[in-house]
Amino acid sequence: MQINRQKNFPSNLPVIIEDELFLYPFMITPIFLSDEQNLKALDLAIKDNSPILVVSSKPQNEGMREFEACYNAGVIGSVMRRVPMPDGRVKILFQGSLKGKIIEHLSTNPLIASVDVIDVQRPTNQKIDALLSVLREKVKNLSLLNHFFPPDLLKTIDESVEPVRVCDLISSALRLKKGIAYSFFIEENLESKILKLIDYIIEEIEANKLQKEIKSKVHSKIDKVNKEYFLKEQLKEIQKELGGDSSKEEEILEYKEKLEAKKPFMGEDAYKEIKKQIDRLSRMHPDGSEASMTQGYLDWALDVPFGNLSKKKLSIKDVEAQLNSDHYGLEKPKKRIVEYFGLRELLSLRGLDSKTNNGVILCFVGPPGVGKTSLANSIATALKRELIRVALGGLEDVNELRGHRRTYIGAMPGRIVQGLIEAKSMNPVVVLDEIDKLARSYKGDPTAVLLEILDPEQNSKFRDYYLNFNIDLSKVIFIATANDIGSIPAPLRDRMEFIQLSSYTPQEKFEIAKKYLIPQELKKHGLKPMEVSINKDALNLIIEEYTRESGVRNLRRRIADILRKVGLEILTSEVSKVSVTSKNLKDFLDKKVFEIDAVDKKDQIGIVNGLAWTSVGGDVLKIEVIKIKGKGNLQITGQLGDVMKESAQIAFSLIKTLIDDKSLKIPSNLAQKDDKGKEIAVYNAYDLHIHVPEGATPKDGPSAGITMSTAIASILSNSPVKHDLAMTGEITLSGKVLPIGGLKEKLIAAYKAKIKTALIPRKNYERDLDEIPSEVKDNMQILPVDTISDVLKQALVR
């Protein structure tokens, strides 16, 4: 197809938008088309046997087929060949002829525009020839620095007499970005075009020179490093020939000296293993990976404090004084700790210290915040020994305790050996925290390792997998802590003696806050005692209404909250003292928790106060029963466990028997008759619904048996239950009241709720009453009960 510059333009031409290439008039280029718009434009050009305009898309609009997404100028040319591809695309061979620009948009589907040619006229002066000479020279200079200009192209540029063609050839070879290429493409002033190209090529020359210089420096540096490496290797070989590497020999000698110094205090197996590894290291190349691992092993093994023991003589007076100094209350736990160390002191005085291996392992059990870890801290302080804490919560990898075998990358000793190294002593106090939260997985069962660690018959020869020799743990004082004894595996429970730490009473919390928490928090917050005062009423209010716990951890947090605001007020208001009272307490603390609701002020039918044990102390639960006309069905709600549901069934059956044998009298006005006039038992005339409030909290256990029985008896006999009375106890079908656990926490909760009378099983009354704080016993009547009849006699208002 012949395209005549003069006759054919301006002309209406189909437009193809190309995303990848920037075309020039002299190019014969394969173009791949896949989108519908371009294919329609191609079909139209072939159908009408007309030229076609190919324009480039703008960089940010690639893939779009709109006039706004492409440049306004491109190449006018013809399609020499069209070939369909297997993947659905169409390949065309496009021959460019002229530069063209879009004058007017005519159609968008397909793209059709009115197109005119861009005709750059050559001025008739010698300046253009001079500029072309400079341009050709710069191109030759650039070609020496990069590979953009092959010899054939340089020859064409040199021989061409058309300045526009020379510029286009150079532009196409430079691989310009679309924006820069387009600015050169549409420039109609030839002189300006050549000057811009010259400037661009000069910049490229400088950039290429800089890149070449950088590459040269990098290669020089690499060559220098290689040279140094080879020289160092040669130096090492020379040193070996002259007598060996002196620095390595010094290191080996240092290891041997450390080993000989510790030899009297370590076992024979430990000495042999460490010596063997030192000998291996002496035969290894110092830069090998094996040498690095062996060196790490020797550092760990020789850091084990063989023979280092605390020199302080054991004294129970010091232990007792320290415990009393650091803790208020906890009389029974402190007494047992003193007994434990008293036995050790007696054995030591009589020269029987080696037999202390037969001693027990203490385990402090109780809710969070009651002072389990704090007691261990006091023991370590009194004995002048280092305290090592090993957190066992969630531990499932045996190797964490026993050590990793040295075949693993990153292997290291177990936590017990690391604790000894950290303490720099073979007899520290080791606290095994949260021993009830051990896990088990495919990595092993940590319980098995703890059995060896805590067994006095075995721990004198505890083998750490990493060290690969026995460690004597018999002189370590192990103390475990736990929240729930039931979660500790039975074999571990057999190794330990449990010391229960129960909930604190409000009075105990008051004394702890006054003597310990407030002074400690004042120091932490940089305040002086004279700058802040918290009066008795405010402190009691914090304990009663702003904390919900059996310990004092949240109480400490609330005191810290107050002191932060006090510190801010002292800084901003320039006051010398801030007083916290019950009236202004709400200015320092935002939210009340209301640990235990006070009891109702009047007797009610079907509502009974029950006492419950929780992981954070005791609680008072109101058990409610209502009756609905029905057929004697029983419904139970409140997210109760199986044991508690069974207690409700037992209670219902028991009350039925009491009604049948007339032990529980039903008022005549509650009598019901069937259709035939025959009297129906009251429990068959109604459906009962038992509910335990706080339905979001799971509850279980048998100790609500007498509470449920009383509630059912109350609703069926229409008898109110005393509002200031609470109870706990398991019930049997024969009506006997069985003992329960957690009595101390339950009675403390009853005391906080202002209960006046508490009913408890007689066996608990006989064996556990001594553990109840006198503050609780003095302000509450605690009555023992043997049967359900005793309970109903005390609870129901007749």
CATH fold node name of the largest domain: Ribosomal Protein S5, domain 2
- Unreliable spans are none
Radius of gyration: 47 Å
Name the average pLDDT.
81
Shape: extended
* Proportion of helical residues: 40-55%
Q: What composes the largest sheet?
A: 7 strands, mixed
The structural domain count equals 5
CATH architecture heading of the largest domain = 2-Layer Sandwich
Describe it.
With 798 residues, the chain is of the alpha/beta class. The protein folds into 5 domains: 11-117, LON domain-like (Archaeosine Trna-guanine Transglycosylase, Chain: A, domain 4); 246-303, no CATH class; 316-417 and 429-500, Rossmann fold, CATH 3.40.50.300; 506-587, Helicase, Ruva Protein, domain 3 (Orthogonal Bundle), CATH 1.10.8.60; 607-795, Ribosomal Protein S5, domain 2, CATH 3.30.230. Helices cover 43% and strands 19% of the residues. It is built from 26 helices and 26 strands. The strands form 7 sheets. Strands 18-21-17-16-22-25-26 form a 7-stranded mixed β-sheet. Strands 1-3-4-5-6 form a 5-stranded mixed β-barrel. The termini are far apart.
Notable characteristics:
seven-stranded mixed β-sheet, 43% helix, 26 strands, 5 domains, Rossmann fold, Archaeosine Trna-guanine Transglycosylase, Chain: A, domain 4, alpha/beta, single chain
Map the helices and strands.
Elements: E1 11-18, E2 28-33, H1 36-48, E3 52-57, E4 70-84, E5 90-108, E6 111-117, H2 126-143, H3 151-159, H4 163-173, H5 178-185, H6 190-242, H7 246-262, H8 268-283, H9 289-303, H10 316-326, H11 331-349, E7 361-365, H12 372-383, E8 387-391, H13 399-402, H14 415-423, E9 429-433, H15 446-454, E10 462-464, E11 469-471, E12 477-482, H16 490-495, E13 496-500, H17 506-524, E14 532-534, H18 536-545, H19 553-573, E15 578-580, E16 607-614, E17 617-629, E18 634-637, H20 642-660, E19 672-673, E20 679-680, H21 682-685, E21 686-691, H22 705-717, E22 725-727, E23 730-731, E24 737-738, H23 743-752, E25 757-761, H24 762-768, H25 774-778, E26 781-785, H26 788-795
Parallel strand pairs: 1-3, 7-12, 7-13, 8-9, 9-12, 14-15, 16-22, 18-21, 22-25, 25-26
Antiparallel strand pairs: 1-6, 2-5, 3-4, 4-5, 5-6, 10-11, 16-17, 17-21, 19-20, 23-24
